[in-house]
Amino acid sequence: MLRSLSVLGLAGTVLAREITFPPVSGVQHILADDGGLVPGGDISAAMYSGLLTFANLPYVHCLAADGTEVEKYDIAIVGAPFDTGVTARPGARFGPTGIREGSRRISPEFSWSVYTGRNHFREWAKIVDCGDAPLTVLDNTIALKQLDKTHRVISGRKGNDSEYAVPRIITLGGDHTTTLPALRSTYDHWGAVSVIHFDSHLDTWDPDVLGGGLSHYAGVNHGTFLHIAHEEGLILNSSIHAGIRAPVANKKYDLKHDRACGFHIIKARDLDRLGVQGVVDRLKERTTGTRVYISVDIDVLDPAYAPATGTAEPGGFTTRELLTILDGLSGMEVIGADVVEVAPIYDNPGETTTLAAAEVVRSLLSLMVDTPVKGKL
Ligand SMILES: [Mn+2]
User: Quick one: pLDDT band at residue 3, thresholds 50, 70, 90?
Assistant: First the structure.
């Protein structure tokens, strides 16, 4: 049967293709700018094979010991596998690996945007993956200090582009507590900044409210880190949340306290009234003239688009809405960013959450490439 079918197939003018086997080192081809294939490319960056880095970017040992020569970079991806500051479902310690898995289909060569006609991986910035911060899973205080140190080492190296001396970092969380060390490190280079905080929750809770006043240790968690950042003077009073919808613990205090921490609020359903451009405009107005840190808690998305998270809240943004809003922020001076609260164990076989998280990271990278920022080493 098979034989007769193939005979029929060849009965016309079509002849079987010659199959030429390339040498092993040339199995992988890379795409040239003109769309042609260049044989014998670097097979270490092959999609769906090889060791796992974000978007198949090169790995650099950014945390090498003092005195070791380290390859230079302008934008670094680093994972923060920490989830013991979460108040509901744990599992975000596997977030960095999950987001990298979700980014496997992203290739720096195959990344020309149909919206902008640009490939941000091929512009001025050298973008690398530094792997994960080495964090103990047994002591939150020590783990967060280890993350402080990780950020200081990675952002303390001289950038690849001599004009923009300080490398910028995108952190793959981890629960939301991991944003605090990132803000401490950016403060060293850029001073206090506005935070654009995409989340369904405020995360400015007074540690005595969320943590119950049990101990200082209990008060440092994924719902209080913005209070602490404000207390430490790391953020400006021109910060803003987007996507808020979770209930608060009391009638007035939480929202009043949130304003005192420097935040305005765009609620999830405000999007219905304002549209994505309206949200973009409000974010820009609020932070105008300041440098920004963008923190994306994946629970800003509706659980339909991001089921794999610690504290899911129905009624959120779609993935497309979030990506359009993020891309609309082009032109802002983004000095650091993160995607947090991705807990892959609750994802589905289609990897809905990790695919979305990886795409969010791509948008954050693009914002950083769009607007280089000079900083103090
Ligand atoms: Mn959060």
Answer: very low
| Structural domain containing residue 205 | 51-370
- Kindly list the protein residues that place their beta carbon closer than 5 angstroms to ligand 1, a single-atom ion: 176, 199, 203, 297
**Rounded Cα gap, residues 116 and 113, in angstroms:** 5
What's at 30, amino acid-wise?
Answer: I
Query: Which segments within the chain are labelled E, that is strand?
Result: 30-31, 37-38, 75-80, 127-132, 168-173, 194-198, 239-244, 263-267, 292-297, 334-340
Which one, of 311, 286, 299, 312, lies nearest residue 360 by Cα? 299
Q: What is the pTM of this model?
A: 0.91
| Alpha carbon of 166 to ligand 1 centroid (Å) | 27
Angle between helices 140-156 and 179-190 (to 10 degrees): 40
Strand partners, 338: 171, 295
Return the pLDDT at 2.
Answer: 45
* Domain of residue 92, CATH code: 3.40.800.10
Q: Mapping DSSP to helix (H, G, I), strand (E, B) and coil, where does residue 339 land? A: strand
**Residues in Cβ contact with 349 at an 8 Å cutoff, skipping those fewer than 6 apart:** none
| CA separation for the pair 26, 113 (Å, rounded) | 28
Nearest to 105 by CA among 321, 342, 361: 361
User: What span, in angstroms and rounded, lies between the C-alpha atoms of 130 and 374?
Assistant: 21
Q: What is the pLDDT of residues 253-295, one digit of tens each?
A: 999 999 999 999 999 999 999 999 999 999 999 999 999 999 9
Give me ligand 1 centre to Cα 5, in Å: 59
Count: domains in the chain: 1
